[in-house]
Amino acid sequence: MTEHSTSQRRICVVGSANIDLTFRTSRFPEPGETITGRSLHQGMGGKGANQAVVAARLGAQVSFVARVGNDSFGTQAIEAYQADGIDTSFIRRSENQPTGTAAILVDDHAENCIVVVAGANAELSSEDIVAASTVIESSNVLLCQLETPVEAATEAFRLARAANVLTVLTPAPAEHVTGELLNLCDVCVLNKTEIELLVDQSVNTEAEAVLAAELLRKRGVNRVALTLGSDGVVIQDEQGSMFIPATTVRAVDSTGAGDAFTGALAVSLASGLSLADAARRAGIVAAISVTRLGTQTSFPTVEEVADWNTKEAMQ
């Protein structure tokens, strides 16, 4: 396929906007235990915002449909998105709910555990989506996740499908997925935990990953990209399955790596690449992100990805 120009790569993201408070610790505490943290980092997060930021830094024209609180965190979030060139015209401010917040613990093995308070994210409504219908219908790709009400994502996917816009879903939390949403999904990007819940099939080997992806396609999804962390990605479409190995790096923080992959995948798909080629490029972006601390602060720009590729080619 021929890649589209940057001006044609229009991506709309519908989803969550959070403030992330990241605590570095040597290990996770046991129930009832208090341990001393090493550092605290405040940044921007939320799966929707993460994917929007990644796509914008990789050169796409991005619009973000979301809710934040009428508080200082909400102001900081909007200003940060605008600094990345994201269209924030469709971000509404909730009067009675705070901006969503996530507490993230990261240990010495770069593993993380997260507690999220939805706040204003829970108020994103179908009415908000209809108000943003013009930008959804004029996009090349629509990205949704489920940290906001599933009704909002479903309405967005209905509008996108009617306008022949490619729909990409991160089904997290997976328990909120509906049959209608899967039937409206062109590309489902998910991890091992999420697909195991959706298809009731364990994933411990590459063969089991392929089977799980096949089962998910039988539920209505057109194409699947199953991310397996440092083990790579399994993609499944009408032509069959393919395993794409991960780029080897020294990880320091895996927070947001899945969103880095998904946002980058969307940019490549909007550029006209195949799912396999898009997944390869997205894997590089995700690999770069885990070498850095934080969530959105870890996401590379298009120039940084180009520099990375140049250095890799020289080795």
TrEMBL record:
<feature type="binding site">
    <location>
        <begin position="18"/>
        <end position="20"/>
    </location>
    <ligand>
        <name>substrate</name>
    </ligand>
</feature>
<feature type="binding site">
    <location>
        <position position="259"/>
    </location>
    <ligand>
        <name>substrate</name>
    </ligand>
</feature>
<keyword id="KW-0547">Nucleotide-binding</keyword>
<feature type="active site" description="Proton acceptor">
    <location>
        <position position="259"/>
    </location>
</feature>
<keyword id="KW-0418">Kinase</keyword>
<protein>
    <recommendedName>
        <fullName>Ribokinase</fullName>
        <ecNumber>2.7.1.15</ecNumber>
    </recommendedName>
</protein>
<keyword id="KW-0479">Metal-binding</keyword>
<keyword id="KW-0963">Cytoplasm</keyword>
<dbReference type="GO" id="GO:0005524">
    <property type="term" value="F:ATP binding"/>
</dbReference>
<keyword id="KW-0808">Transferase</keyword>
<feature type="binding site">
    <location>
        <position position="294"/>
    </location>
    <ligand>
        <name>K(+)</name>
    </ligand>
</feature>
<comment type="similarity">
    <text>Belongs to the carbohydrate kinase PfkB family. Ribokinase subfamily.</text>
</comment>
<dbReference type="InterPro" id="IPR029056">
    <property type="entry name" value="Ribokinase-like"/>
</dbReference>
<dbReference type="InterPro" id="IPR011611">
    <property type="entry name" value="PfkB_dom"/>
</dbReference>
<comment type="function">
    <text>Catalyzes the phosphorylation of ribose at O-5 in a reaction requiring ATP and magnesium. The resulting D-ribose-5-phosphate can then be used either for sythesis of nucleotides, histidine, and tryptophan, or as a component of the pentose phosphate pathway.</text>
</comment>
<dbReference type="InterPro" id="IPR002139">
    <property type="entry name" value="Ribo/fructo_kinase"/>
</dbReference>
<dbReference type="InterPro" id="IPR011877">
    <property type="entry name" value="Ribokinase"/>
</dbReference>
<feature type="binding site">
    <location>
        <begin position="46"/>
        <end position="50"/>
    </location>
    <ligand>
        <name>substrate</name>
    </ligand>
</feature>
<comment type="pathway">
    <text>Carbohydrate metabolism; D-ribose degradation; D-ribose 5-phosphate from beta-D-ribopyranose: step 2/2.</text>
</comment>
<feature type="binding site">
    <location>
        <position position="292"/>
    </location>
    <ligand>
        <name>K(+)</name>
    </ligand>
</feature>
<feature type="domain" description="Carbohydrate kinase PfkB">
    <location>
        <begin position="9"/>
        <end position="301"/>
    </location>
</feature>
<feature type="binding site">
    <location>
        <position position="253"/>
    </location>
    <ligand>
        <name>K(+)</name>
    </ligand>
</feature>
<feature type="binding site">
    <location>
        <position position="191"/>
    </location>
    <ligand>
        <name>ATP</name>
    </ligand>
</feature>
<feature type="binding site">
    <location>
        <begin position="258"/>
        <end position="259"/>
    </location>
    <ligand>
        <name>ATP</name>
    </ligand>
</feature>
<dbReference type="InterPro" id="IPR002173">
    <property type="entry name" value="Carboh/pur_kinase_PfkB_CS"/>
</dbReference>
<dbReference type="GO" id="GO:0005829">
    <property type="term" value="C:cytosol"/>
</dbReference>
<keyword id="KW-0067">ATP-binding</keyword>
<comment type="similarity">
    <text>Belongs to the carbohydrate kinase pfkB family.</text>
</comment>
<feature type="binding site">
    <location>
        <begin position="227"/>
        <end position="232"/>
    </location>
    <ligand>
        <name>ATP</name>
    </ligand>
</feature>
<keyword id="KW-0630">Potassium</keyword>
<feature type="binding site">
    <location>
        <position position="147"/>
    </location>
    <ligand>
        <name>substrate</name>
    </ligand>
</feature>
<dbReference type="GO" id="GO:0004747">
    <property type="term" value="F:ribokinase activity"/>
</dbReference>
<comment type="subunit">
    <text>Homodimer.</text>
</comment>
<feature type="binding site">
    <location>
        <position position="289"/>
    </location>
    <ligand>
        <name>K(+)</name>
    </ligand>
</feature>
<feature type="binding site">
    <location>
        <position position="255"/>
    </location>
    <ligand>
        <name>K(+)</name>
    </ligand>
</feature>
<keyword id="KW-0119">Carbohydrate metabolism</keyword>
<feature type="binding site">
    <location>
        <position position="298"/>
    </location>
    <ligand>
        <name>K(+)</name>
    </ligand>
</feature>
<dbReference type="Pfam" id="PF00294">
    <property type="entry name" value="PfkB"/>
</dbReference>
<dbReference type="GO" id="GO:0046872">
    <property type="term" value="F:metal ion binding"/>
</dbReference>
<dbReference type="GO" id="GO:0019303">
    <property type="term" value="P:D-ribose catabolic process"/>
</dbReference>
<keyword id="KW-0460">Magnesium</keyword>
